[in-house]
Amino acid sequence: MRFDIITIFPDFFQTVFDFGIVRRARAAGLVEVAAHDLRAWTTDKHRMVDDRPFGGGDGMVLKPEPLFAAVEALTGEVATDDAVAGESFRRRLSETRKRVVLLSPQGRVLEQSLAQELASEAEQVVVICGRYEGVDERVAEALVTDEVSIGDYVLSGGEPAAVVLVDALVRLVPGALGSETSAQNDSFSEGLLDWPHYTRPPEFRGMRVPEVLLGGNHAEIAGWRRRAALRKTRRQRPDLYARAELDARERNEIEERED
After folding, report:
1. Cα(173)–Cα(132) distance, integer angstroms
2. What is the per-residue pLDDT across 47-67, written as a single tens digit (0 to 9) for each?
3. Is 180 a catalytic residue?
4. CB-based contacts of 231: which residues, under 8 Å, 6+ apart?
5. CA–CA gap between residue 197 and residue 215 (Å, rounded)
């Protein structure tokens, strides 16, 4: 999988991907990550990437011309300047397993299901980092396949969000984690929080590891983990628990023990 990040601060990404899972995936040739300076696609002597918004108001808006030029250069596909033809552009991207992601507070919230969708359907992800008051709306209308937000709060720009997006997707690239089941067992992979984890020593300051985890019975351990994940999700994320697909017996067992 390849990530091309369009930003006005390419140095922000100089070392951030040189650690942990992303570094190992890059070293193994599973993932490529490149940050590109949006100013490289400007045509004026001042290399302007932003301008004042029509209609007045505070702040500046990223201009469409350099963003269109950048995405076209990185994807090898030519976009047009209207929203109707934008559907054709997005269809061509889909056919070649490419996605153009605009990081925006107005976007679809990045949940595990969206990360899985992007990781499974794209071989190249072009990421546009917004700045200032945002991006010219024509970019979203005719150029972008996905608008993505990492949460309901405001950042100074899309760069930190790009790091989150790349990390979330790289974990889902086959071979990136070393274990084929690690990503499957992560929190949110099945709509639940992960079960509690313990390691040595078996007792610490009077707190003991649950006996079932010490016994070596894999069926009993699997059952305990499922119930523990459900109980934890019900306590900490009741919204997720309410959407969980449980049969009546399992739901009654969890709720009777908790109440």
Report:
1. 32
2. 999 999 999 988 999 999 999
3. no
4. 254, 257, 258
5. 15
Instruction: Please list the residues that pair with 37 across neighbouring strands.
Output: 7
What distance in Å separates the CA atoms of residue 15 and residue 213, rounded to the nearest whole number? 39
The three-state secondary structure class of 182 is coil
**Residues 72, 77, 105, 226: which is the catalytic one?**
105
CA 208/CA 190 separation, integer angstroms: 28
Q: Which position among 65, 133, 167, 253 bears the catalytic label?
A: 133
Give the model confidence (pLDDT) of 168-206 as tens digits.
Answer: 999 999 999 986 666 666 667 678 999 999 999 999 999
- Cα 204 to Cα 101, 160, 199, 232: the distances in Å are 46, 37, 10, 21
Asked if 99 and 172 touch (Cβ cutoff 8 Å), the reply is: no
**Is 91 labeled as catalytic in the residue annotation?**
no
Catalytic residue, chosen from 186, 190, 253, 255, is 186
Q: How far is CA 176 from CA 13, 16, 19, 84, in A?
A: 20, 17, 13, 38
Nearest residue to 111 (alpha-carbon basis) of 157, 172, 160, 54: 172
73: enclosing H helix or E strand = helix 64-75
Amino acid identity of 256?
A: E
- The catalytically annotated residue of 90, 171, 231, 234 is 171
Q: Answer yes or no: 133 catalytic.
A: yes
Question: With the C-alpha atoms ordered 245, 250, 183, 111, is the resulting torsion angle positive or negative?
Answer: positive
